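Hi there,

I know you've been waiting on this one. I reran it after we fixed the sequence typo, so this is the corrected version. Both the input and the resulting structure follow.
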Amino acid sequence: MYGYPLMSDAPATPDATAAPAAHRALYRKFRAQRFGELIGQDPIVGTLRRAITGDRLAHAYLFVGPRGTGKTSTARILAKAINCTNLGADGEPCDACSACVSIREGRAMDVIEIDAASHGLVEDARDLVMRALTAPSELRRRVYIIDEVHMLSTHAFNALLKLIEEPPDHVVFILATTDTHKVPPTIISRTQRHDFRRLAEPTIVGKLTRICEAEGSTADEAALALIARLADGGMRDAESLLDQVLAFAPERVTAEDVREAVGLADDASVAELVDAYVAGDMAGALERVAGLADAGRDVAQVASQAEAEARRRLLSSAGDPAMAGRLAPILRTLAEAAGAGAREGRARLMLELLAVEGATARRTEPASESVAGPESAAPRIDGRADPVADREPSPKAAAPRASAPASPGPAAQHLDGTAPEPPRAGAPAALPSEVAELRGRWAEVVERASPVIKPLLKECRPVARDGARLTLAFPEGRDFMRSRIAQRSSAIESLLSEMFGGPFAIECVASNLELEPLTVAEAIGDNPEDPEAQALLEGVLKITGGELVDAPEVR
């Protein structure tokens, strides 16, 4: 593995004849160089100090934690402490001896930092093994810092396994990763693991204040608090944001400067957007999303801000179950828009769909509360509550059903002319009307589908609809079909919109669903008089909510 010495983060020796030094990123300029300068990781620092003073250093360390929490900085400081010739009594490297200076300036050939993302092949690992067997050239011990170690290939891990377990006495490995679940357990068990935590906002604000003072700038406390909140516990992210904001407002930084530089919406606009979602005000929500986008705000950031606001309201609505019930699906969609939606560039679309879905849900709420009651239980798919099945159809859709005669008409009779039995206690509840219509016409959907998606649609059935969101269920054990249909979601949504009107956004779930035949011909088979075929036909009609309108034609 072709390692390279550490790059220097220390300022070069000033030269009066040289051109002014180029600006360096704040996170590099103010990187911690001693244990005492590390913030927010006191348990790890204390453990490493005592290991150094007590001569209990491990042969391999694994540093795990979110990005920007000090893993690489700690690894470099530990490399200094291992090789420092003037080590303090508390395990603090002096940062002044030749070994410390060479490590800080990136000249130490025996402290090698490796980027596993670009040096993760088995050939690189074998090269590292061969180099590790040679004695250090300058320092007391050779230190290998492997950053993003989870990016190593399986063969590379296997090649390093024995060396990491029993390296030569002059070698220490320090592995750093943000995704520990991708590191093989065989590697983890051979290292001493330290978990780095996200930094608290006051801790981040304190260091940002010191940086502003050193840079000759002033910043409002509210501005620094906003930066700390946006950094989500990462000191490097906070320093990068401060660097960006100082370029926008070099003398004095306010909270408004932070919002302008980063593309954030003001708190009042975010609160109004969440109010519109909660109230089911589709026009108001769409207008606010469009207004924020037109004003140049980052829609992904707006989604993240709205997620935080909705979460705050949800946590404070413990005494109001109705409000909590309205906020939960809103928060779920906002979190998706701020996460996967932001990565895929669909954050704005998801915010707009949420406005439409919220308005649809609010229109059906009164019927749900008056007919079903607060204690009615919703059907479940894989243990999750169905967001649509706990609502009754709208009054407009329920009116024909209420005026229908109590006795079954000729069209609802069995093939032998007898009337169907009344539903028994404990029988499954009928599907909501909007899903029943889709279910009843699913054979037509399959027939009109392209040859690419037709086989996929035959293997699923619609089970729930919440506004534009349609849930398709697959029988358990067919996950490969779910993944394939998810890849064709745009074509399926276009087909459904063409047939039924309005927008559709499909999601796939696995359930104990049994695929009923799509057509009467499939249900009856070759022998219409077969009792089993008759029973199957009755099940199809009951599940789909359909009717046998012309029995002679079926024969």
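Quick highlight: The longest strand covers residues 171-177.

Best,
R. S.
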